Amino acid sequence: MEGEIIIKRPIIGILTNLLITEGGMFPGMERVYVNYDYVQAITMAGAVPILLPVISDEQCIRKQIEFVDGLLLSGGCDINPLLYNEEPCRELELIFPEVDEHQLAVARIATDLGKPMLGICRGTQVLNVAFGGTLYQDVLQVPTSIKHTQKTQRYVPGHTVNIVQDTIISRIFNKKVILTNSFHHQAVKDIAPGFIVNARAEDGVIEGIEKPGEVFTVGIQWHPEMMAGKYPEMMNIFKQFVAATETTMS
Ligand code: MN
Fold it and tell me: Which of the residues 102, 121, 184, 207 is marked catalytic?
């Protein structure tokens, strides 16, 4: 219709995790879950969130990805270190091989299909491992590391992050230093070929990576979806991600 404003509403697939509850009516029951903060952030950014459950069939994973305009790789538990050729250290926490298998396949297939990706916390680590990088299984492996698992409300800024200039993240924040929350005990060690570092904590720990190129492929170690309600600049990450999906959506 003439004069009608067409609002694009990209569909963002949010990767889910498994959760095992010990109490309640079904102890040991495995549930597919995602924190509601991600759903709210994607909705606030003007896109339509859908949840992509953990599955293993590669043809079906490809269908999941073809269905969406972009992918949010959410936070979650540890990544199996065998996937980057390391034995487990004593500090390694909960892993779910099914979740690793699904998410690593998603990262690779989404890249093949040219779909924008935003990785948050574990999602950053998934991007790195999927393309040949390695992780600190525990940030204590960095001898001078500061505290990266803060004991405060989830929206509270926990430490400073230095932004690397001339990166997507530097254009989103337009600042050299920001304050972020921090709820990770793992971190990127050797960065995957083709990626660059876009943010670091004062102790040198990598707080973000991205892949220079046509398709928005960005990972950050903090949780902007938990801060966006009180710190509107954190919403800009989701807005820029959604805007990037609008330029690539069919
Ligand atoms: Mn941190």
Answer: 121
